[in-house]
Amino acid sequence: MTRLIFLGPPGAGKGTQAKILADIRQIPHISTGDILRNAKAQGTPLGQKAQGYMDRGELVPDSLILDLIRERLGEADAQAGWILDGFPRNVSQAEFLDSLLQELHQEFDGVVNLDVPDEVLVARMLERGRTDDNETTIRRRLEVYRQQTAPLIKFYGDRHQLHLVDGNQLLDEVTATLKQLVPV
Ligand code: ADP
Known about the structure:
alpha/beta; 9 helices
């Protein structure tokens, strides 16, 4: 059973690596960014509410995210394990996740932080060209990451649940490191 949380700044490759590892382990890759982008594309109420925040590079309010995570982790496929990508993104989401997992009688294996220098992040995001990947939004997302998400490195580090991984290696090298880190 694999249950992992992926942390790291925007552009670090969390989504790519989380998907590869989830496919190998045959468990769901749960990306709040993907869920929100789908909702936005389909114009659902969630998508409409989230759109402005995402386009500005801000976090969407916790009120939009927490129920969504509760529902997703309750689904049948998530009982075999999961990789969370993009959640939690601030301390209150991390505290929510703690109590949710207690409720579900689930524990996670660890938290992976993919570390990549800022200039590499910006270059990667500009190359990717998602609609929220313009310079202004990228800069704002990095700021929001530093202010709200980076404190989770200490949050999980203090509990000895954190694995630091160099995300500035070749894609396959990062995958190999991750596979070693979390043996089946
Ligand atoms: P990236 O890691 O490149 O920033 P994501 O796909 O993880 O991209 O997220 C895209 C956007 O979706 C974020 O900028 C934010 O607006 C929103 N988002 C995703 N996950 C969360 C979350 N857990 N809490 C609040 N907002 C979120």
